[in-house]
């Protein structure tokens, strides 16, 4: 099966209309998998000595979790994408690279999406939650029901004021703060524009012979097989998605984001064994007096 994933997008002012952050994602999964939209209310947890189970493993509880709305494959605990009561939105992507994928059961990337939303009231705090959990519990396990399908993850995390890209390879990671427009797909894409990183991400790459320690450190070049010099001229969904965003820079609305998610020639709107099974668009006004709005399809075929 050809490795496929999803596409996640964000646009920040001044690329958008009306001082709004616009977030969007297509969830591409096996064609016969059911994806559901669920709401989980905020909760206070008094028994902090009790662990709770995610998809495969148990993790420690925290004193408080925020209300979340999630779009998720019905068989697992986590989520492909979602938002919380503070306007934080997260979507994840499957990524592959030089590091062998762990099939040992740990946290799925989709578990990390939900945990980040439940535990953080800003985008950067969600990034902190995810990398702390990644360090403590690791990532791994089968990501599909009835199929062998494992991967590492990248994340696009947004709130009313900013957005972050977080990309991982095993326990190693790099993060980029977004300016203007940005998208992620099923490939690593952070190159030298690194705002935060795992403390050993460079040493590990050097030990493995992926970086000589002399050239400027390029996370994607070190941890994947992608030629970063040619990355924006390839026919990949990542490249095509960026072009669609950039084409509308300065005039992006939620309708623009919906049109991008419907786009079939780019492959963003996917058909076949892997299918766009659900879509999400969020409008996050920078004015805190205005509500955030989240739109979900909970069905395939976003062109409908």
TrEMBL record:
Sections of the chain in a coiled coil: none
**Single GO molecular function:** dipeptidase activity
Q: Which InterPro entries match?
A: Peptidase_C69
Q: Which GO terms describe its biological process?
A: proteolysis
UniProt-listed Pfam families: Peptidase_C69
Into which family does the record put it?
Belongs to the peptidase C69 family. Secernin subfamily.
- PANTHER family, sorted: SECERNIN (PTHR12994), SECERNIN-3 (PTHR12994:SF18)
**Protein name as annotated:** Secernin-3 isoform X2
What are the leading ranks of the lineage? Eukaryota, Metazoa, Chordata, Craniata, Vertebrata
């Amino acid at each position: 099966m050809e490795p496929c994933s999803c596409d996640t997008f964000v646009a920040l002012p001044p690329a958008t209309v009306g001082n709004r952050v616009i977030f969007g994602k297509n969830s591409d999964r096996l064609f016969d998998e059911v994806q559901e939209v669920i709401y989980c209310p905020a909760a206070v947890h008094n028994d902090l000595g009790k662990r709770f189970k995610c998809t495969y493993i148990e993790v420690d509880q925290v004193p408080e979790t925020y209300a979340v709305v999630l779009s998720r494959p019905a068989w697992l605990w986590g989520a492909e994408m979602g938002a919380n009561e503070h306007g934080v939105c997260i979507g994840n992507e499957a990524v592959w690279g030089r590091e062998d994928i762990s099939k040992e059961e740990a946290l799925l990337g989709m578990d990390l999406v939900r945990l980040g939303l439940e535990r953080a009231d800003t985008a950067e705090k969600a990034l902190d939650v995810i990398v702390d959990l990644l360090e403590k519990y690791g990532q791994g396990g089968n990501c599909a029901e009835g199929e062998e399908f494992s991967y590492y993850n990248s994340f696009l995390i947004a709130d009313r004021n900013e957005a972050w890209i977080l990309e991982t390879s095993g326990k190693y990671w790099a993060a980029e703060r977004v300016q203007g427009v940005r998208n992620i797909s099923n490939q690593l894409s952070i190159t030298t524009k690194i705002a935060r990183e795992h403390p050993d991400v460079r040493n590990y790459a050097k030990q493995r012979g992926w970086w000589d320690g002399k050239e400027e450190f390029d996370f994607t070049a070190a941890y994947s097989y992608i030629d970063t010099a040619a990355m924006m001229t390839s026919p990949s969904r990542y490249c095509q998605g960026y072009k669609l965003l950039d084409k509308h820079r300065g005039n992006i609305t939620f309708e623009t984001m919906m049109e991008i998610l419907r786009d079939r020639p780019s492959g963003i709107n996917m058909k076949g064994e892997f299918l766009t099974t659900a879509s999400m668009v969020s409008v996050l006004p920078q004015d805190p007096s205005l509500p955030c709005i989240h739109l979900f399809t909970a069905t395939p075929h976003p062109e409908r």
